[in-house]
């Protein structure tokens, strides 16, 4: 088990890397906006990255309140539990990303199952009506 000091250093590294990634994404997004303003067209991938970066910048505002106000960082886990999408995407851990992907996949599977059952029911009704 890690000591308190090791956990604190790990969290600081995590937030440093998150801010560094956000800064890099912001620079890339600024270049994309510059290209857009000069009439170039973005690819689908670039457009998604630009939207994600803009959303992250808007999420950063409430997140910075927790960083700037003294002792408010102790409430951050509570707010993250209440509002899980509040944290910018560059601050997410791999386990959180995998968990989110699993939830999306399960939702898609449930939707596909529902649609398959609905189509089967409609086919039975049409068969009964025509038969």
Q: Mean pLDDT score, rounded?
A: 88
Number of domains: 3
End-to-end separation: 69 Å
Reported for the largest beta sheet, the result is: none
Radius of gyration, Cα only, in angstroms?
22 Å
Shape annotation = flat
Q: What is the count of helical runs?
A: 4
- The topology string of helices and strands comes to HHHH
Strand content: under 5%
Task: State the secondary-structure class.
Answer: mainly alpha
Counting DSSP E segments of at least 2 residues, the number of strands comes to 0
- Poorly predicted runs are none
Helicity level: over 70%
Transmembrane segments: 57-80
Domain Letm1 RBD: 42-127
GO molecular function: ribosome binding
Pfam families: LETM1_RBD (PF07766)
